[in-house]
Amino acid sequence: MKTRTKKFTIDCAILCSKLPNSREYNAYVNQLIRCSSSVGANYRASQRAKSSADFINKLKIVEEEADESNFFLEILLEINKNQEIKDEMNMLLKEGNEILAIVVASIKTARNNQNSK
């Protein structure tokens, strides 16, 4: 998962480099770069958590940032006029949704483990 979230960060940055450099796109591109990089960074931080509560809190940040990444990917997909990168965008959106689902399931499991102690 550490490798997967890092790859998601890199793939989002690569996608952003292919988008037009205009006022309309720049706001969304900057947001996507920020939140997608936060997915990878905060997942990595979760692996060094000091307690189960800390682990859950860090994963909650990953959940929020993955959801935000998906939002900006959806926006960019809708305003994008370059058909050549539409498949890449859809693939990234699918990956973002899968990461989000895994993280939500991990949070649920961690909470269940924490409550059973």
Structural commentary:
This protein is mostly helical and 117 residues long. It contains 4 helices and no strands. It has helices spanning 2-17, 23-46, 52-79, 86-115. Helix 2 (23-46) packs antiparallel against helix 3 (52-79). It is elongated. The two termini are 26 Å apart. The model has no long low-confidence stretch (mean pLDDT 95).
- Which consecutive residue ranges, at least 5 long each, have pLDDT under 50? none
Structural class: mainly alpha
Largest sheet: none
> What's the oligomerization state?
single chain
**DSSP E strands, number:** 0
Write the SSE topology.
Layout: H1 2-17, H2 23-46, H3 52-79, H4 86-115
Helix pairs in contact: 1-2, 1-4, 2-3, 3-4
Describe this structure in a few short sentences.
This protein has 117 residues and is mainly α. It is built from 4 helices and no strands.
Task: Give structural attributes.
elongated, 117 residues, mainly alpha
